[in-house]
Amino acid sequence: MYHLTLLCMIAAPSALAFPFVANLPGVNNEMLEARRAHYNENQKRQTSCPINPNHPGAHKYVAPYLYTGANHGLPGSGIGCFDVPIPGDPNHYFEAPGPLDIRGPCPGLNTAANYHFISHDGIMTFAELLDAQQNIFNVGYDLAVTLAALGVGLTGDIVTEKMSIGCDATSRTSALGGLQGVLGKEGGINDHNKFEQDTSLSRTDFFFHGDDHTFNASIWKEVTAVTSGFNNLFNRDAMAKIMSERYKDSAATNPNFYFGPKSVILYGAASFLYELIPSLGNQGIPTREVVNSFFGAKPDGSGGFTFVPERIPDSWDIRPTPFTNADVAAEVVALYSQFPVPLGGNVGINNFNAMGSFGTAIQNGKLSLNPKDVKCLLYQIATENVPDSLSTVLELPLNVLNFMTGKLNPVFAGSGCPLKLT
Ligand code: HEM
Ligand SMILES: *[C@@H]1O[C@H](CO)[C@@H](O)[C@H](O)[C@H]1NC(C)=O
Questions:
Q1: Which of 261, 289, 332, 357 keeps 20 to 30 A from 393, CA to CA?
Q2: Cα 17 from chain centroid (whole Å)
């Protein structure tokens, strides 16, 4: 039995009609009424999604061009420090996306697709996502599984294990006409507040134009300007400052601004700029040039940017060692602790309401500064019913929950996090 499990408040006569939601941790009861009007606004836009009849799939890894050896969704060696693409590899090369290819809000996945590490049309499988993350960036197997599970589980199809790296491509990701999706449709990673959220580094908040996935050159100009205070580098201190600036901007301008438990993913992505994106990763230097290349930001010569397809810079090297769940959790804490902003959301412009608590990782609207709590929060946001606005909760259907625990329990075994048995 499938049923729509996003509990939204649009038609509710009162909050009391939804005692389940009202009692959930992280949901602010007083906000239920006020929130309704804004929620309506938030959900109204849908863009059309291109269909490419040619679905090449990820190109194969052929010896001796095996990267970390990650293949078929299995763990690789974790040994990095080589050029990507490996010189001479006939299968992984830059090809700009065409009008029928889907691209979205993630610079990492857009880049992977542009080089055929994942399917060039923008529709890919869980296994392809694991291989690509390990082989291009040396993402640790546990983190690769975590991100792919969040992507496929929340925005894709748990039977085909396919996902779109942008818009809703249910007709191609689904086995059963979309019924496997968490919302009865498979929105792809553009889908707002499933994985994609407000305060992105280079994308506009969904509320303004219903476009949360296109590169926004003026946001990127502001973000880049912040690095002037940090030797023009996207290093940890610069990213902490940038995150706080992006938060302030959204809080001041977006009446629908929401920064909930899943904002932990945004801090994680911010750490990718100095952990994964520099040549040699955490051993390298997060220069504007290298970060621009992965974001598709081309300086226009007068301080601004134009968008060009995302590229791996020439002679670029993958980081030496894997970047794991524990590593990303430590970076989230390092970033957040510099500017420990309250989690929650707006009900109207500049009317911020902090969320309550969510597990141990979020107490009184603040993220825990214990890296272990943050690591376990990554597990929780994939396996629990998480508030996805001040008044709505994304309830995971049992089959999606089973998918999540099936993927995550093996890589979180021994993590010290309480695991769900289903
Ligand atoms: C299966 C794996 C992955 C999925 C499903 C995924 C998905 C996403 C999504 C939905 C966003 C938008 C978040 C937001 O700003 O609202 C995002 C942002 C981002 N991702 Fe990924 N991602 C994955 C792996 C990676 C990897 C391996 C990299 C490596 C560089 C990466 C780099 C980034 C960066 C830098 C951002 C921030 C962009 C911005 O804020 O403008 N991602 N990702
Ligand atoms: C890009 O960002 C700027 C600054 O936040 C905003 O004013 C503008 O509307 C955005 N453009 C689009 C197309 O989203």
A1: 332
A2: 32
